[in-house]
């Protein structure tokens, strides 16, 4: 990978982020950083890969996609990829659960499957009410968003049973979920430019709220990605409006609104210490194939170095005065 600080015409890079080159030939479907080093994996629709995740030791990447299988790529050893999981429909989400030494995969076949890499068959298959659209793991908490706006919460200490099933506080289709770093709740983002903040404890329900974002006037854009900062536990949203913003859920404040790129941001992620925020800028198919022009469509991957003021939480405002 080469890094360049040069912006591109058409206001693709208004925040003057570092550009990662070369970028994939088609739209980016996922970005994931190694938990051990600044290695970034991008998956793209050019080979119909939808999702990716790293093993906790940073040695291996797992990818899943439209071919209904999950491959393991031993990056550090330079070995060939091997199939480690399979579904009956495209694989939308993959996550490595370090504490269980298992891979969990979520598919449009309406199942979650847990895989021991030493076995060809899943060690457990969990039925979902609908297709898996989003998944987040922060052991022992796992939250799955499905096509019918259900949010299914699992305690991974007893993964065979649902801990709680919640209808999304948002009225439209779920696009992304992110577990709180303290495992006490989760964020959910939808296609309507809104984020829900939800606590699991019934006694904390008064702290739940939703807020609008990624909107401009009457134009409403999808929230495509939610990422918690690994140190400050604030979070980033990225959307089809081409913007990414940093937020503090505890003080209910937006910390920083970044300048909008001229194309959507379909996915984003922080590196392991939060010093780099990676995001892709490309067509995200939210306006259908008829609005995609292969002749002019380009894909970009950028790296932003967040300043502390952008990502460090602020004290709660207790009075109306400043």
Automatic annotation (TrEMBL):
Keywords: Repeat, WD repeat. Residues 1-21 are annotated as: Disordered. SMART domains: WD40. This is Uncharacterized protein. PANTHER family: MRNA EXPORT FACTOR AND BUB3 (PTHR10971). It comes from the Eukaryota. Residues 10-21 have a biased composition (Polar residues). The lineage of its organism: Eukaryota, Viridiplantae, Streptophyta, Embryophyta, Tracheophyta. It comes from Asparagus officinalis. WD repeats lie at residues 84-125, 223-257.
